[in-house]
Amino acid sequence: MKAEIHPDYHTINVKMTDGTIFQTRTTWGKEGDQMSLDIDPTVHPAWTGGSAKLLDTGGRVSKFKNKYSGLGF
User: Fold this and answer.
1) What pLDDT is attached to residue 10?
2) Contact (CB, 8 A) for 47 and 41
3) To 5 degrees, how large is the angle CA 57–CA 61–CA 67?
4) Which of 12, 16, 10 is nearest to 36 (CA)?
5) What is the pTM of this model?
6) Of 35, 43, 44, nearest to 15 (Cα)?
7) Predicted local distance difference test score (pLDDT) of residue 28
8) The 21-26 sheet, strands edge to edge
9) In angstroms, rounded to a whole number, what is the distance separating the alpha carbons of residues 43 and 33?
């Protein structure tokens, strides 16, 4: 591996939306910096499997369901 071409790999603190803080190693920021998250995997429905509502704009979902209703999904 060539010297002087890779970014510095150091420890930072990550502050979750609920206020908890954990340490991780990264190339982001500088040693000891704190990254505050706006969205984190402990509360976001994309990671927790929360109920998401499907917005049917212009009947597209209905058209899709009608078109493929006979396939038995």
Assistant:
1) 96
2) yes
3) 140
4) 16
5) 0.56
6) 35
7) 94
8) 21-26, 10-15, 34-36
9) 23
**How do the pLDDT tens digits run along the chain, 73 residues long?**
688 898 899 999 999 988 999 999 999 999 999 999 988 887 777 777 766 666 666 788 788 888 888 886 5
Q: Which residues have a Cβ under 8 Å from the Cβ of 72 and sit 6 or more positions away?
A: none
Cα–Cα–Cα angle for 66, 64, 49, rounded to 5 degrees: 115
DSSP 5-54: -SPP-EEEEEE-TTS-EEEEEESSSSTT-EEEPSS-TTT-HHHHT---PP
The type of residue at 52 is A
Q: Of how many residues is the chain composed?
A: 73
Under DSSP, the state recorded for 57 is S
